[in-house]
UniProtKB/TrEMBL annotation, chain A:
It comes from Sinanaerobacter chloroacetimidivorans. The keyword Transmembrane does not apply. It is found in: Cell inner membrane. One of its GO terms (cellular component) is plasma membrane. InterPro entries: AAA+_ATPase, ABC_carbohydrate_import_ATPase, ABC_transporter-like_ATP-bd, ABC_transporter-like_CS, P-loop_NTPase. This is Autoinducer 2 import ATP-binding protein LsrA. Gene3D superfamilies: P-loop containing nucleotide triphosphate hydrolases. It catalyses: ATP + H2O + (2R,4S)-2-methyl-2,3,3,4-tetrahydroxytetrahydrofuran-[AI-2-binding protein]Side 1 = ADP + phosphate + (2R,4S)-2-methyl-2,3,3,4-tetrahydroxytetrahydrofuranSide 2 + [AI-2-binding protein]Side 1. Part of the ABC transporter complex LsrABCD involved in autoinducer 2 (AI-2) import. Responsible for energy coupling to the transport system. It holds the Pfam family ABC_tran. It is an enzyme of class 7 (translocase). Its main location: membrane. Residues 14-243, 249-502 form the ABC transporter domain. The lineage of its organism: Bacteria, Bacillati, Bacillota, Clostridia, Peptostreptococcales.
Automatic annotation (TrEMBL), chain B:
This is Autoinducer 2 import system permease protein LsrC. The keyword Transmembrane applies. It comes from Sinanaerobacter chloroacetimidivorans. CDD domains: TM_PBP1_transp_AraH_like (cd06579). Keywords: Cell inner membrane, Cell membrane, Membrane, Transmembrane, Transmembrane helix, Transport. The chain crosses the membrane at residues 12-33, 39-61, 68-85, 91-111, 118-139, 159-181, 188-206, 212-236, 248-276, 296-315. It is found in: Cell membrane.
UniProtKB/TrEMBL annotation, chain C:
Coiled coil: none annotated. It comes from the Bacteria. InterPro entries: ABC_transp_permease. Keywords: Cell inner membrane, Cell membrane, Membrane, Transmembrane, Transmembrane helix, Transport. GO terms for cellular component: plasma membrane. This is Autoinducer 2 import system permease protein LsrD. GO terms for molecular function: transmembrane transporter activity. It comes from Sinanaerobacter chloroacetimidivorans.
């Protein structure tokens, strides 16, 4: 799909010359030079905090560069505001959805357009039809899940008819089905001569749709070239910190069926039902990772949140280490030894304006002291987690919001694990974090397993589920479709079960 | 009935209207003369000042800011307008000066909030103090009185025999702004900014300009209210408009304009203002002591917002549950199908 | 990959408090040179009598604002509790101390109602406390008409011991209200900055959802901040009643805006999540002394709003422009002006 | 503060003496007029007179104004109090600091001040209010008039005392009259509210005969309300207290043909002068007469003229304003305040 070298003689659609940017003392971009031609799909990859989003926000006019120039179709432009960028045919689908919660999906998408409303609606309907996404246009945006929000953001970008479309981790919350249809549209766009920046942490995607790869590290472009020149291994090498030794995640032998049966399950979910799911039966044993696969909207988050005491139980029971905890308050459930790590880090996970220490200790203050805060203990605890989890901070008093995404995720994990849980429910623990951090998170999960903690792992990333899980339950439309033992865990099996088409061998 | 109830809960203005009618009806049951046509008209006529203030403030609140300087602005512009009229200026000059002053105060607020990035409540609180002090400087602490009878008579002009000129003008303004805010492409910008300012910036809405516009409009509407005040009341004291900012905000809230921005309409604000300004009248008709004024205002305000909050939470929960249950249902039918196939 | 200097904003706050102290010193120097009487210690200390209620309520309103809420009903609670005190003492014949106890309970109840509606019913704080502002001040007027002494005469003639609460002086120079203010500042400081509750207050202010997922009863925490605020307002009611020797329904009228002003000038973010007791305490005194000093310098009270309003705007603008420059940049929401480069 | 701050008594030049002239609230035409009188006499005599008050009439605000006047080193206070007893502590402190205290318009506890310049006794004023209404009535109305009171609030001292005295006078003199709203109507010195309450009164009681507005915001508001409804003085009697400037048009066009007030400029002048006079080291006993430049001799009466139960002492007395004026369209143009 790459363009032939002849095309390179034309003027680049956008040309970035020597762009630099720093925030206070933090140098984020160092003299970036990049030319992108018509119809290219440029995969921009790099670790958390490498500066990808910052560069894109400069193109969108959200940030002003400290130095450098931008040319569009050979003409120098001043992208001083998003409207300037828009009038130059640039559009950014942001990493974090920025919808208008009180407006409908349709209003969210069409606001700010100059065209007639009726025309727009027709175009929009056609687009959704083409994508095959299931989105009601009159729903209020505040009722959308994070994945649905991302769909709306993408629709907004696609409808814009921009010449240069930037997609900043558009698929981080999406699953197979949506990603596939999105890629189809991207391919269409790029054959129509539209230039696309595509940021992702999922390297397989790079090979699926990109024509060119750009690797950003510490604000500099360290590798660049047409996609054919690379393979996945090379990209990983290019991404990881130079002195990084990959944590050897040797998959332990899965707890065998027999061995498991001899133990008591740590978490038992019996005929459990609530809003969005029903008839769920699951058992998680100590030292086991049970994966929970499914497509967006399968009801996995609802299941987890209901177990955690945040939503109404309609039927069934949850038993933790022999004790029934059905319908208890989250606070009591945490005390009993179950913790849930929410999927939306920004909404439910971190206290971005507070420092790392306050975040890590937020769940255990009651244990540190009754009324007053024992600073000594809380510092020790924080330092221990910073060290154990290799959280990259300037100190335990760094503001959490200023950490990179992966490190924020580690803080969220530390906060959860500081409660000394027997059961951990992880909901999308690696969404939006880079390969290095992902390795660290996997290592942490493994350590939990070794300590005998029961882990319920919810993830939309099938490879992740396969890599980590001892057993996998697949959820489809609110039910557990099938539970796979270790030897049955394959991409095909999980995929078909997630889409509700898996047929058990005995019935087949 | 149920449909009406649901519609009411969804269209927040209807809820306010229903509440107002209920209030009027109860008063009318106790004292039927309250419901006499001309008295109801009087109630609406008497609300014009509050309505104008509330519309202005609702622009600002819709963009997610707040303006607590409208009371002072109204007082100042009323004093300026009244002084000019008293000293023989033409009506045109007086109105234009008042509106210009209102616009300038709004502009200062807007620039402070957007360019100096001062939180709106602080900026307008500060300006409120400055403007209020300026009224004393301007009037030297004296009342502006003895306005010419013609000027005062504008408040009495009726069209078609019963529609008060000011009321008609105000209603037209309300309808006009409503159509602009909810139908015009750019009108939606106000709500969009209040909803998510970052998102609004991203899709190219000139955020600062719209926010400044909102403050300017707030000032302008306060100025128009000031002119109406001068004409209707007939004299202007330096304390005119004291505490009106809180009542204007309360009127917006009663009318369903959310203080977090992005939600609500000027129609709601209008009816909220009618409720606010009718309370003291209603008490007279109920032969209740005026001592109960604030208590009743407080209770009504709390009842209506609590009812609203409960209904909204209920609706949201219901919608969520229905959506989730629908998924589950699909699942059930699917499972059944499979069983049928298998069987 | 270096990231934001984490200490920056804490330093910012510290620097801000230093700035407030600087303003305070400037005020003393300027007003002292205009009217040397201003510098007399009894005059300076005694001036607190006139703004003690703002100081007391602002301390605890700060805690409310850190949770992301706001309490504008404090002034109304002052009037209400003053009336409750007088009625119970005079008309119900209660012992003055018992009456005082019940008056504090009234403050707690008012705060609890505010807090309940905000936390558990989910109404916006501004709206609830606006309703409370009308309701409590209205009730105070209604109560005042219930007394045997007519509303316009007020209730007075309190025992000497009660009058001494605000009228007395420690060591013959430091007026009691000043001591009360210091004590309450220390209490509020420990509560907010040293206790578990205070930590929860910040966390809830930054992200209530996350607090819920951390097992923090965020609704209860938020509700308690309103209770503290209501209690503080009732303490102010007692102090003011004692100081004036008379119960009045309108004692707290006009306090709303100065309280908000003090809290915000003290560096508390209106959106919650950060703020400090020391800042509020300093800001309350800065504003109080400014008004007092201007009056001492001969400015008529009716013009005082002008300099106070300007100080508020200038101070907050300066803080925004200086100390928080980088943080403002951090919030990606703001537009940039188009004049930068070509 | 210690006593060392008192200016040297007896030997003081007029220009050494400064009087703080404190109204209930600023920005009200009544008090502004009183201040004009005070300033005139201060200039005439040559003492310093500073007008200082708060735009909002509340105890706390007035205490603050007094405290600051004490700290600024004024020699005397001439004050119109918002409350009979809420200022006690502040006044005590002022006294201790050596300030002389004179009240005008609205009094404090008698032992807290030396002199009070009264516009009349509550009985005089209550009777005046009622008679201003009665003199416009037909004989039939005088037998069975329906009336009500509309003023600022239940918590202001003087207006309520006139209302109480007026009610008493009605019971005695016009037993047939019916008060349709014994709880009274209040509009809290908010002009717009005065109009809307005024309109509602006229709507609720279309057959009401008289509305007495003993507040200078309520009276023009009520008059405007009547005009808004197309009513004139022939349809309903509206009367009360306000400055002539505030009512000139209403008086001339017949909406409020009769209303009254005392000469507040003279009252202000007397208050300010007496404060100065005391601060200059002069003393008096009840029964003495004091000569006031441009106004004439006034006699110091015992406190009991206002209230039979009042505290009596040689150094505490009342000075009455010589007269109160009823304004009609014939004489209103003679006044400008
Ligand atoms: N912030 C939110 N506010 C309101 N409703 C939400 C919110 N987030 C999610 N939901 C609701 O929860 C439903 C499920 O969300 P989501 O699509 O993440 O499903 P899920 O079952 O968690 O899927 P997954 O299996 O991917 O975890 C959504 O359809 C949405 O209605
Ligand atoms: N507004 C800001 N103010 C200060 N620092 C910022 C700001 N925005 C980003 N940074 C810092 O700039 C660096 C680069 O951030 P950026 O968001 O561009 O990373 P990224 O490559 O998009 O990472 P991710 O993969 O996690 O999205 C980070 O260290 C971040 O902390
Ligand atoms: Mg990014
Ligand atoms: Mg999910």
């Amino acid at each position: 799909m790459g363009l032939s070298n002849d095309d390179r003689t034309q003027t680049p659609a956008i040309s970035i010359n020597g762009i630099s940017k720093s925030f206070a003392t933090n140098v984020v971009l160092r003299k970036i030079n990049l030319d992108v031609y018509q119809g290219e799909v440029v995969a921009l990859i790099g670790g958390n905090g490498a500066g990808k989003s910052t560069l894109m926000k400069i193109l969108m006019g959200i940030y002003q560069p400290d130095g450098g120039e931008i040319h569009i179709s050979g003409k120098k432009v001043n992208l001083c505001s998003p409207s300037a960028a828009l009038s130059n045919g640039i559009y950014l689908v942001p990493q974090e959805p920025m919808l208008f919660p009180n407006m409908t999906v349709e209003e969210n998408i069409v606001l700010g357009f100059q065209e007639k409303r009726a025309e727009l609606r027709l175009r929009l309907e056609a687009l959704i039809e083409n994508l095959g996404w299931d989105l009601k246009l009159d729903r209020k945006a505040e009722s959308l899940s994070i994945a649905e929000q991302q769909l709306v953001e993408i629709l907004r970008g696609l409808l814009r008819n921009s010449k240069i479309l930037i997609l900043d981790e558009p698929t981080s919350a999406l699953t197979f089905h949506e990603i596939e249809s999105l890629f189809r549209i991207i391919t269409d766009l790029h054959s129509n001569g539209i230039s696309i920046f595509y940021i992702t942490h999922r390297l397989t995607e790079v090979f699926d749709i990109a024509t060119r790869v750009v690797v950003l590290r510490d604000g500099q472009i360290t590798m660049e070239g047409s996609v054919g020149q690379f393979n996945q291994e090379m990209l990983i090498q290019g991404l990881l910190p130079t002195n990084y030794e990959r944590a050897a995640i040797r998959k332990e032998e899965a707890v065998s069926d027999k061995k498991r049966k001899s133990k008591k399950p740590m978490l038992e979910i019996k005929d459990f039902g609530g809003y969005g799911f029903s008839n769920v039966n699951l058992e998680v044993y100590p030292g086991e990772i049970l994966g929970l696969a499914g497509v967006v909207g399968a009801g996995r988050t609802e299941l987890a949140v209901t177990i955690f005491g945040k939503d109404l139980v309609k039927q069934g029971a949850v038993i933790l280490d022999g004790e029934e905890i059905t319908g208890r308050k989250s606070k009591q459930i945490i005390e009993k030894g179950l913790i849930y790590v929410p999927e939306d880090r920004h909404l439910n996970g971190i206290y971005s304006m507070r420092d790392v220490e306050e975040n890590v200790t937020s769940g255990v203050l009651g244990h540190l002291n009754k009324y007053f805060i024992d600073r000594k203990k809380s510092r020790e605890l924080t330092d221990r987690y910073i060290k154990d989890f290799r959280i990259k901070v300037t100190g335990r008093d760094q503001i959490t919001g200023s950490l990179s995404g992966g490190n924020q995720q580690k803080v969220v994990l530390a906060k959860a694990l500081a409660t000394n849980p027997k059961v951990v429910i992880l909901d999308e623990p690696t969404r939006g974090i880079d390969a290095g951090a992902r390795g660290d998170v996997y290592r942490i999960i493994h350590e939990l397993k070794q300590q005998g903690v029961a882990v319920l792992l919810i993830s939309s990333d099938i490879e992740e589920v396969i890599e980590l899980s001892d057993r996998v339950a697949a959820m489809y439309q609110g039910r557990i479709n099938h539970t796979f033992e270790e030897n049955e865990i394959t991409v095909d099996n999980l995929m078909s079960a997630s889409f509700g088409v898996y047929q058990k061998e005995e019935t087949a | 009935m149920k449909i009406i109830a649901e519609k009411m809960a969804k269209t927040r203005e209807l809820f306010t209207v229903a509440f107002m009618l209920l209030l009027f009806l109860i008063t009318g049951l106790i004292n039927p003369s309250f419901l006499a046509g001309d008295n109801l008209l009087l109630c609406f006529n008497g609300s014009v000042i509050y309505i104008l203030l509330a519309i202005g403030v609702s622009f600002v609140i819709t963009t997610g800011d707040i303006d607590v300087s409208v009371g002072a602005t109204m007082g100042f512009t009323a004093a300026v307008c009244a002084t000019l009229i008293r000293d023989g200026s033409s009506l045109m000059t007086a109105v234009v000066s008042a509106v210009a002053i209102g616009a300038v105060i709004g502009l200062i607020n807007g620039l402070g909030v957007t360019k100096l990035r001062i939180p709106a409540i602080i900026m307008t609180l500060g300006i409120n103090g400055v403007v209020r002090g300026s009224i004393y400087v301007y009037t030297q602490g004296k009342w502006v009185e003895n306005l010419p009878a013609v000027f005062k008579s504008y408040g009495q002009i009726s069209l078609f025999g019963f529609v008060n000129l000011f009321l008609l003008g105000t209603v037209l303004i309300v309808v006009g702004t409503y159509l602009y805010l909810h139908r015009a492409r750019k009108g939606k910008y106000f709500a969009a900014i209040g909803d998510n300012i970052g998102g609004a910036t991203l899709i190219g809405i000139p955020v600062d300009r719209v926010r400044i516009t909102a403050f300017v409009l707030s000032g302008v509407f306060a100025a128009i209210a000031g002119v109406v005040f001068a004409s209707k009341v007939g004299f202007v004291t330096p304390t005119a408009g004291n505490g009106y900012e809180m009542k204007a905000i309360a009127a917006c809230v009663l009318g369903g304009v959310s203080l977090t921005g992005g939600v609500g309409s000027v129609i709601g604000a209008m009816f909220g203002a009618v409720i606010m300004s009718s309370i003291s009248r209603i008490l007279v008709f109920l032969q209740f002591s005026s001592n109960w004024d604030d208590t009743i205002t407080g209770i009504l305000l709390i009842i209506i917002v609590v009812a609203d909050a409960l209904i909204q939470t209920h609706l949201k929960e219901k919608a969520r549950k229905e959506r989730l249950a629908a998924r589950d249902l699909k699942a059930q039918s699917h499972f059944e199908e499979k069983e049928v196939l298998a069987g | 990959m270096s990231t934001l200097k984490s200490l920056d904003w804490k330093k910012g706050i510290l620097r801000w408090e230093a700035a407030l102290i600087l303003i305070l010193v400037l005020e003393i120097i300027i007003f002292g040179s205009i009217n040397p009487r201003f510098l007399k210690v009894p005059v300076l200390l005694g001036s607190i009598n006139d703004y003690i209620s703002i100081c007391i309520i602002a301390l605890f309103a700060t805690i409310v604002m850190i949770t992301g809420g706001i309490d504008i009903s404090g002034g109304a609670i002052v009037g209400l509790t003053s009336m409750v005190l007088g009625l119970l003492w005079q008309d119900a014949g209660l012992n003055i101390w018992a009456a005082m106890g019940l008056c504090l309970v009234t403050g707690i109840l008012c705060g609890a109602l505010n807090g309940f509606l905000v936390s558990y019913v989910g109404v916006q704080a501004m709206v609830v406390t606006l309703g409370g502002l009308f309701l409590y001040s209205g009730l105070a007027v209604v109560l005042s008409t219930l007394s045997v002494s007519s509303a316009y005469e007020g209730i007075s003639g309190f025992p000497e011991a009660f009058i001494r609460i605000a009228g007395g002086k420690v060591f013959g120079i430091v007026p009691n209200p000043f001591v009360i203010f210091i004590i309450l500042t220390v209490i509020a400081y420990i509560l907010l900055h040293k206790s578990r509750f205070g930590r929860y207050v910040f966390l809830v202010g930054v992200n209530p959802n996350a607090a819920g997922f951390s097992g923090i009863n965020y609704k209860l925490v938020a509700m308690f901040t309103y209770i503290f605020s209501g209690l503080a307002a009732s303490v102010a009611g007692v102090v003011l009643t004692s100081y004036l020797g008379s119960c009045r329904a309108d004692l707290g009228s006009g306090l709303t805006m100065p309280i908000v002003t003090a809290v915000v000038l003290g560096g508390t973010a209106i959106t919650g999540g950060k703020g400090s007791i020391a800042g509020t305490a300093l800001a309350a005194i800065v504003i109080g002394l400014l008004r007092f000093g201007l009056q001492m310098s001969g400015m008529s009270t009716q013009y005082l709003d002008i300099p106070v309003g300007l100080l508020l705007i200038v101070a907050v603008a300066a803080r925004g422009a200086g100390v928080y420059m980088h943080r403002i940049q951090y919030s990606s929401k703001k537009e940039k002006s188009c004049q930068t480069e070509t | 503060g210690g006593t060392d701050e008192v200016s040297d008594e007896g030997t003081a030049e007029p220009s050494d003496i400064s009087v703080a002239f404190i109204p209930k609230l600023t920005g009200n035409s009544f008090f502004e007029s009183a201040n004009l009188g005070a300033q005139d006499i201060a200039e005439e005599v040559g003492f310093e007179c500073a007008y200082t008050g708060n735009p909002e009439a509340s105890v706390a605000n007035q205490v603050q104004v007094i405290n600051s006047a004490v700290q600024q080193g004024f020699s005397a206070l001439a004050i119109s109090s918002v409350t009979p007893d809420g200022l006690n502590n502040a006044l005590k402190a002022a006294k201790e600091a050596g300030l002389k205290i004179v009240c005008w318009d609205s009094d404090v506890q008698n032992d807290m001040r030396s002199l009070h310049v009264a516009q009349g006794t509550p009985e005089q004023l209550g009777e005046m209010l009622v008679e201003m209404a009665a003199m416009q009535m037909t004989d039939e109305q005088k037998q069975s008039a329906k009336y009500c009171w509309h003023y600022s609030s239940a918590t202001v001292t003087d207006q309520n005392s006139w209302q109480v005295a007026g009610e008493k006078y009605i019971k005695e003199t016009y037993p047939g009259w019916v008060n349709v709203a014994p709880d009274n109507y209040y509009s809290g010195q908010d002009a717009e509210k005065a109009v809307s309450v005024g309109e509602s009164i006229l709507k609720t009681y279309p057959d009401i005969d008289a509305i007495i507005c003993n507040d200078s915001t309520a009276l023009p508001g009520q008059a405007q309300a009547a005009e808004n409804l197309g009513l004139s003085g022939k349809d309903v009697i509206i009367t009360g207290f306000c400055t002539p400037n505030g009512m000139r048009d209403f008086c001339k066009n017949g909406t409020v043909p009769v209303f009254g007030l005392w000469d507040c400029k003279v009252q202000g002048a007397m208050g300010a002068y007496l404060a100065y006079w005391l601060a200059a080291g002069n003393e008096f006993k009840v029964g003495d007469t004091i000569d006031i430049p441009t106004i004439g001799e006034v006699e110091v009466l015992p406190n009991t003229v206002l209230d039979p139960k009042a505290y009596t002492a040689d150094d505490s007395g009342v000075v009455l304003l010589p007269e109160r004026t009823i304004f009609t369209k014939d004489n209103i143009d003679d006044y400008n305040f």
